[in-house]
Amino acid sequence: MLLYLEKKPLICVSRLYYFHMSTVKTIFLFIHILAVVGGLVLLLTQLPKPKKSTHAGFLHSMLTALVAGVVLVGINTSLHATDPVKYDAPDHGVVGIKFLILLVILGLIIKNKKKSEVSTGVWALLIALTMANVFIATSL
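Request: output the structure for the sequence above.
Response:
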C-alpha cells in the first residue's frame, strides 16, 4: 500500500512494517535474553550458601522469559508469512522443547515456592534445565 502525494509515493507501508516488526523483535529478544540471564544469576547467587533457596525473582524472571518467547514466536511467524525469502520460519520443534523445559522449571519453582529452603538436587536441576534451555537456543 502506497500513499501518494502528487503522483510520488510518500511512504511505503510494507517497508515500514518490516522495520517496526524487526525493531519489536529485537526488543523482545533482548527482554527474553535478559530474563533468562537474570534467572540464572539469581540461581548462581545461592552457590556459596549451604542452604539453597529459590528467590521470588526467579519465578518472575522465568515467566518474563516465557511471555517474551511466545511473543518472539508470533513475530517470527508473522515476519516469515509476509516475506519468506528474507525471514526464516521459526523451528516449532525447538520452540516446543524449550517450552516443555520452561514448564518443568516453572513447575519446580511453584512446587518449592513456599519452602524456606530447597534441596541441592532441586537447585542443581533448576540450573541444569536453565543451561539446557540456553544450549538449545544457541546451538539448534
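The chain has one domain: 2-139.
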